[in-house]
Amino acid sequence: MKPVNEMKMIFESRSCNESFARSAVAAFIAVLDPNIEEISDIKTAVSEAVTNCIVHGYKDDIGKVYIHAKIFEGARVWINIRDRGCGIADVKKAMEPLYTTCETGERAGLGFSIMESFMDKMKVRSNPGKGTSVTLEKSIVSKGK
Amino acid sequence: MPVDIDIDEKSVTAYISGEIDHHNAGALRAKIDEAVEMSYPEVLIMDFGAVTFMDSSGIGLVMGRYKLMRDLCGRIIIENAPRSIKKVMRMAGIEKLLSAENKKEGSFV
Ligand SMILES: Nc1ncnc2c1ncn2[C@@H]1O[C@H](COP(=O)(O)OP(=O)(O)OP(=O)(O)O)[C@@H](O)[C@H]1O
Ligand SMILES: [Mg+2]
Predict the structure, then answer these.
(1) Which end of chain A has fewer CB atoms at under 10 Å, N or C?
(2) What residues of chain A lie within 8 A of the CB of B56, using their CB?
(3) If you compute the radius of gyration of chain A from its CA atoms, what whole number of angstroms results?
(4) Range list of β-strands (E), chain B
(5) Helix, strand, coil: what percent of chain A each, to 5?
(6) Residues B76, B64: contact at Cβ < 8 Å?
(7) Mean pLDDT of A95-117
(8) Residue B17: exposed, middle, or buried by beta-carbon count in 10 A (0-12, 13-18, 19+)?
(9) What residue segments make up the domains of chain B, in order of their start?
(10) Assigned fold of B3-107
């Protein structure tokens, strides 16, 4: 199916871009007249995926983060966020609630759980050494209400 | 810095404002921990009234302060969390740290 609108963005994996990235996606879908909760859900899910690219995918390096977003007929939003970083060896395990490889005790291990519950659909594909791709989908149903 | 800190005899109150993400969680953590480690309060109150966005980095921030206060035999209370922030907190089950009033208004479950 052909999207009714589409955008791509590429930015460096610097933490100051986290806010920029989620705001850009929110601005892109604004034409669908989402309500505050839908905007907040999408911004949170995008922030999770982007932060994972920055914190885990590239760790101490700077690499590029790619976002591709589409809007389909019926106000369906499709968002792909990917990196060319270290990848995930066991995706199923990474997706378990509270699972984290972060050792500082300052990460909850809930990023994937939040993406899954705040969006209608989430798909994760990853290749160790090659990178990680997360696809998120959500239908905007509120028409601003 | 998007946090104002009030210290009194038994408590530290951190009034956080703006967006809590991975980019700014580190600075928030440093400021709050500095106040806690200076005054060893019985209770740390984290006020989310002016927070406009929070992702899992905010959960990490709360859980980290929870552990810190537990090590000091103290406790933490979350105050004034807006609806959207409570929704994120619920993912971690940390809404039980919400103050009684904050739990009541706008029931969430
Ligand atoms: N883009 C990525 N590249 C490499 N590893 C990743 C990526 N995204 C997630 N991971 C791995 O999956 C684990 C779980 O991710 P998730 O977002 O659920 O939790 P977290 O990032 O560790 O903590 P939180 O998101 O709660 O701050 C991470 O600890 C990391 O090991
Ligand atoms: Mg994460």
Answers:
(1) C
(2) 48, 51, 107-108, 110-111, 114
(3) 15
(4) 3-7, 11-20, 43-54, 75-79
(5) 35, 30, 35
(6) no
(7) 94
(8) middle
(9) 3-107
(10) Transcription Regulator spoIIAA (3.30.750)
Q: In the numeric block, which tokens belong to residue B21?
A: 């993400």
* Residue A103 annotated to the active site: no
The chain B residue lying nearest A14, using CA atoms, is B23
The tens place of each residue's pLDDT in chain B, 109 residues long, gives 589 999 999 999 999 999 999 999 999 999 999 999 999 999 999 999 999 999 999 999 999 999 999 999 999 999 999 999 999 999 998 877 777 777 765 433 3
- HSE-CB for B31 with a 13 A CA cutoff: 17
Q: Do A76 and A5 contact (CB within 8 A), yes or no?
A: no
Q: Does B63 touch chain A (CB under 8 A)?
A: yes
Question: Please, what sign has the CA dihedral across residues A38, A81, A14, A31?
Answer: negative
Q: Which domains does chain A have, with CATH numbers?
A: 5-139 (3.30.565.10)
Residue A10 to residue A37: CA distance in whole angstroms? 27
pLDDT value at residue A145: 67
Q: A32 is written with which tokens?
A: 């669908």
Closest by Cα among B91, B24, B70 to A98:
B91
